[in-house]
Amino acid sequence: MQRWVGIGALYVALSAFFTRPLFAFPNATGWRDWDFHLFLHAAVLKSLVEYGQLPLWNPWYCGGNVLWANPQVAFFSPVYPLAAVMSIPLAMKITIVIHYWIGLVGMHLLLTRVIGLKFLPAILFL
C-alpha cells in the first residue's frame, strides 16, 4: 500500500511539473481555443444554475445551436464541481492536471501488469 501511495505521489508531482506553465497566471485564459471551451463550459453552467434547465440548447452561439449534442462539451467533468469554489479557467487547469495524473497512473498499470516491467526508472522513461 505504501508503494502505491509513493508512486501516486510521484505521478502527482510529475503532473504538476508538466502543467506548471498553466499556473503562471492561474485565473487567466490560455491562448488558441481556450476561450471557446471556456464558453461551452460557461453555457452549461448558465443553463443549469441561472435558468434551471437542462443544457440542451446554447442560445449564445450563432443565434442558437445545440449544446447537448455538441461533442466538444464535456457534461461529466470535474470542472463543474470545481467551478462552484473557483473560477472556470482555474477549474479547467486543475482538470488538466487530473487528466495528466490519470494518464500516468494508467500507463504505469499498463506497463507493470500487462507488459510486466518491474524497473521503476524504465517505467518512468516509457
The gist of it:
The chain is mainly alpha-helical and 126 residues long. The chain has five helices and two strands.
Structure description:
- This protein has 126 residues and is mainly α.
- It contains five helices and two strands; from the N terminus they run ααββααα.
Please describe the biggest sheet, giving its number of strands, its sense, and whether it closes into a barrel: 2 strands, antiparallel
End-to-end Cα distance: 23 Å
Which residues sit in consecutive blocks of at least 5 with pLDDT less than 50? none
Radius of gyration equals 18 Å
Number of strands: 2
Quaternary class: single chain
What's the helical proportion of residues? 55-70%
Note the total helix count.
Answer: 5
The share of residues in extended strands comes to under 5%
**SSE order in H/E notation?**
HHEEHHH
Give the averaged pLDDT, no decimals.
88
Strand arrangement, largest sheet?
Answer: 1-2
Task: Assign the structural class, choosing from mainly alpha, mainly beta, alpha/beta, alpha+beta, or little secondary structure.
Answer: mainly alpha
Outline type: elongated
Question: Mind sketching the topology for me?
Answer:
Blueprint: H1 2-18, H2 34-50, E1 57-58, E2 65-66, H3 79-83, H4 88-115, H5 120-125
Antiparallel strand pairs: 1-2
Helix pairs in contact: 1-4
List keywords for this structure.
two-stranded antiparallel sheet, 5 helices, 3% strand, 2 strands, mainly alpha, 126 residues
